[in-house]
Amino acid sequence: MQCNGDGSRFLPFLVLCVLACGCRQDMHNQPKYIPYRPSTFFLDTRSERDPVPGTIARGTLVEDELLQTGKQAGADATVFPFPVDVELLRRGQERFNIFCSPCHGRDGDGAGMVVQRGYRRPPLSTRTASGRPHQGISLM
To answer: For 122, left (φ over 0), alpha (ψ -120 to 50), or beta?
Structure first.
């Protein structure tokens, strides 16, 4: 094959390829329902659907300040937002062992396996956490 260097033979092919790439209308002309327009698909002829039972609309969630922030009336709380029992302590230990102990160590001394492999010691360990109120630890 000999190349004459002008490339004029391939220019129409290149233009055709570029134009063909712009012809896909999959997302532009997709079937959809416009709110408050009639629909023949549903028996009640409405295009809009009722919310799924139990759905919470944006901005209507009733928040529990104590549970969400660890504060009561803007001040640090001195109580837990739920009863602490053996089952809760076991779950907390399980979660700590899975998610926290790689850095903080199983004993909370800050000498987990990640630290032993050369990373910096985490900022919170049992030495620094003792004496802190519970909400201060949970929000870190």
So the answer is: beta
